[in-house]
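The material for today's practical consists of a large collection of protein records. Backbone structure tokens are a discrete shorthand for how the chain folds in space. An example says more than a description, so a record of this kind follows:
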Amino acid sequence: MVTFTGTYGMGSAGNSDAVFMRAVLALALRAFAPVGVVLDLRELDYRWGDMMGAVLNDATIRDVTPAVVISEACRKAMTSLITDELGEEPVEWLFDSPEDAFFAVDNRVQRARAEVRQQIRAAQRRADQP
């Protein structure tokens, strides 16, 4: 879990905040090599800024999207970002508790692993055909 606190700048004023967040994520991904990411933004005052989408993209590992723990400090803006900018369902991304977020990421990882196993089996069957 990567936690960010403080105030994210409004609009383009938040671009440097997003750059910082992306750098922290890159360091964490490199240092720990996780299979999934939970972002804890409960103490981040985020109201608007499209570069937050790049943070979410950077937190996606091998098609396993991150789960984001939110509070009222960022709920409205994160919901808008997920819906309007990413074209996704907020219920798939946003969670009120770290436990629910970890559970969601664990399920995503398990699904991704099952898909890889299925692809490997299919490739093996094709290779075994004369």
